Amino acid sequence: MDTWVWVIVGIVAAAVVVSLAFGAWAADRRRRSVELRSEFGPEYGRAVEAREQKGGEDELRARKNRVRRLVLRPLGEDDRRRLNAEWRNTEAKFIDSPNEAVRGADALVEEVLRLRGFPSADFDQQPADISVDHPFAVEHFRAARQVWRNGDRSPEVDTEGLRQAMRHYHLVLAELVSASTEIPGRRERMTG
């Protein structure tokens, strides 16, 4: 065979190898995207919308890696009973003092996060950390915090807004307090 035939065969073979490698890479990327979408639920869309697909997915993977390093723990039965009783007391205060009730609900969420092992030092990092294992609760966490931050600084937040904040805090607490004693995929990190 002539040299030019071997050159053409080599070019075709290289093109086939490159296209197979690209196809495998693209399929792997799609698979990882589907996995992240499944794990993070609506939080996936939020992250991708804010940073485009690659940036959003990188952010979600970074969150997972960060939270994997935390030692998260379930609540004991005594803590669950106590926190549920505190919630009922906090909720009962709403009629007479909505601001105080919402402030109490926020403090109760902070306590649950601390007891579960979530760092509390960085107010803005908390939603990202929560989103890894509680992607639906984090939406309510953000909504409650948004109302509370505005309500704490502004008299324009009315009683209905505060009631909505209480509803969101209740959903967050229900998720975090009643979370399974076994955190999915995290058995090796469980303590106590």
Describe the structure.
It contains 7 helices and no strands. With about 190 residues, the chain is an all-alpha fold. The protein has 2 domains: about 5-70; about 75-190, no CATH class.
Number of alpha- plus pi-helical segments: 7
Stretches where pLDDT is under 50 for at least 5 consecutive residues are 181-192
Quaternary arrangement of the chains shown? single chain
Distance between the termini: 73 Å
Which percent range describes the beta-strand content? under 5%
Task: Name the shape in a single word.
Answer: elongated
> How big is the Rg?
24 Å
Query: What is the total domain count?
Result: 2
Secondary structure: number of strands: 0
Mean pLDDT: 81
For the largest beta-sheet, the strand count, sense and barrel status come to:
none
Summary tags:
single chain; 192 residues; mainly alpha; 7 helices; 76% helix; 0% strand; disordered C terminus
Secondary structure elements and pairings:
Blueprint lengths: L2 H38 L1 H27 L8 H16 L5 H19 L8 H9 L3 H17 L5 H19 L15
Helix pairs in contact: 1-2, 2-5, 3-4, 3-7, 4-6, 4-7, 5-6, 6-7
Overview in brief:
With 192 residues, the protein is mainly α. Helices cover 76% and strands 0% of the residues. The chain folds into two domains: 3-68; 77-189, no CATH class.
